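Extended Data, panel c. Modelled sequence:
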Amino acid sequence: MRLSVGALVLLVLAGPAFADETIADQAHAAYATFAGGLGAAQFVTAQYPRTALKNIEGTWAKLTGPDNKSGIESYGPDTDKACTSGSAAVLASPDPLTLNLTTKTPLGSFTQSYSFIGGTAFGEHVDINGYLAAIGLGPDQTGDAAAAQRALALSIVNGIVQIYRPSADILVMTRDRGYPLVLARCPKI
């Protein structure tokens, strides 16, 4: 009898932990994600990058998210595989207002630089020649199909992105077109 009373007391005490989050809890999480946990005065005076880019250096895996048809998600064990495969990205912040993301492919590597504009907005710049060569669409690729592929590839770089850091180990980049880029920090080896 004592065990069941103890279990009942534990369940009653733990009950609030299982309750739905309040509006205040949800709002706190939203401000943490979309404003770096900063108040309005700090946010509008360009303090956001110092929060979003803090301790960003290291190797990160690019996630692809859930597959709605199969229900398979590309995080968890797949993240570990991406971290050790050589396809992971390297992030660096050479100053408090800039993020560099370097991607290696079998054909080469390229770096995308993100410079702070304001709010959560960063201007993206990539060296076009290095980018196209690294994805197999360099000048040696000719013809209408290659030209169409280059046009598509170029339509998703060199724009404005929003950068969010919902946690120390997750970085999210969104743009006005395309699927969000979600990166997960790789463990140090």
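Residues 1-35 form one domain. This feature is highlighted in the accompanying rendering.
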